[in-house]
Amino acid sequence: MENIILIFKFIIGTCLGSHALVITQRLNKENFIWGSSHCDNCQMNLSLLDEIPIYSFLKNKGRCKFCKESIPIVTIVSEILGGFTFFKINFYSFYAILDIIFLFYLLVIALQDFQDQEFSTIFLIPISLITFLSPLSAFYNFELLDWIVLIFLALFFVLEISKSKMGFGDLIIFIFLGLYLGSLVAVHILLLGCILFLIYYLLNPNSHSLAFIPFILGGLIINNLN
Ligand SMILES: [Zn+2]
């Protein structure tokens, strides 16, 4: 039964991941809520079957079925990332929807940061609202140690920002993660994100001006798996 629930969460996550990518790509350009899904190259509308995440990518061998243009790899990557992002949500909880919205916008920000090395501050609105309004936000139960850990790491971020090694957005996301999920969880996620970042950097030594939030999301996903 537990495995079925995990598969269910994964499938929902892939749909959310797919929609998160659409939001980042159509922001300020097209209606991403009611607009129909279409191929960005030939503009042909996709059928419902062609919108099934991962399955449609594999079925059409990563190409548009009309014009045969390659579908960007970020499409399937965001679907798979989405699949793992919502693993820890307790769907039986009344407050699950708050977790889903929080993680969904984190996913949107990570995908936008990955593509543009920046993200739209408008996506911080739902994240900050949920952090401060959800009764399940971790910071309501913070003890002194939690605040010290969070402030200490925030200062580390400020230091890195002053050296232009990190962006202000990375700091904001880390603080919200800490306040919502808890300082120690955020530290764990940050450590895992740094390890992923190092691995990526070692494999791609020539890459520069890397976005860091996708690695934070990667850390969160690995943290979800245990
Ligand atoms: Zn096409």
UniProtKB/TrEMBL annotation:
The keyword Iron-sulfur does not apply. InterPro entries: Prepilin_pept_A24_N (IPR010627), Prepilin_peptidase/N-MTase (IPR050882). It comes from the Bacteria. Residues 11-88 form the Prepilin peptidase A24 N-terminal domain. Pfam families: A24_N_bact. Coiled coil: none annotated. One of its GO terms (molecular function) is aspartic-type endopeptidase activity. GO terms for biological process: methylation. The keyword Cytoplasm does not apply. Its EC number is 2.1.1.-, 3.4.23.43. Keywords: Hydrolase, Membrane, Methyltransferase, Transferase, Transmembrane, Transmembrane helix. The chain crosses the membrane at residues 6-24, 93-112, 119-138, 144-161, 173-203, 209-225. This is Leader peptidase (Prepilin peptidase)/N-methyltransferase. The lineage of its organism: Bacteria, Bacillati, Bacillota, Bacilli, Lactobacillales.
